[in-house]
């Protein structure tokens, strides 16, 4: 089964894959390997124009939705 997931808000559309790509880039910019990323939780808050993430149930942060 092929599927796609989009968040639409305030005239914007963001695809799930783009959010995951951004989160993985944050992970690797800190010098870590993608293979060390065992879990990724994303929480999209359109009203704040932000995505909050949790890496491996331990490290958290956020980034702006473009």
Describe this structure in words.
The protein has 66 residues and is of the alpha+beta class. The protein contains one helix and five strands, in the order ββαβββ. It has one helix spanning 16-29; strands at 6-9, 12-15, 40-45, 50-55, 59-64. The strands form two sheets. A three-stranded antiparallel beta sheet has the order 3-4-5, covered by helices on one side. The radius of gyration is 12 Å and the shape is globular. The model has no long low-confidence stretch (mean pLDDT 94).
From the structure above, extract its key features.
66 residues; alpha+beta; 3-stranded antiparallel beta sheet; two-stranded antiparallel sheet
Give the secondary structure arrangement, pairings included.
Layout: E1 6-9, E2 12-15, H1 16-29, E3 40-45, E4 50-55, E5 59-64
Antiparallel strand pairs: 1-2, 3-4, 4-5
Rg computed from alpha carbons, rounded to a whole number of angstroms: 12 Å
- Distance linking N and C termini: 29 Å
Total helical elements: 1
* SSE-based structural type: alpha+beta
Average pLDDT: 94
Residue share in helix? 10-25%
Question: Which stretches of 5+ consecutive residues score pLDDT under 50?
Answer: none
- Major sheet size, sense and barrel closure: 3 strands, antiparallel
């Amino acid at each position: 089964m092929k599927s796609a997931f989009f968040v639409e808000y305030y005239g914007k559309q963001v695809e799930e894959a783009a959010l995951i790509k951004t989160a993985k880039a944050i992970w690797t910019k800190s010098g870590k390997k993608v293979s060390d990323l065992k879990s990724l939780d994303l929480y999209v808050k359109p009203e704040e124009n932000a995505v909050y993430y949790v890496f491996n149930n331990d490290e958290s942060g956020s980034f702006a939705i473009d």
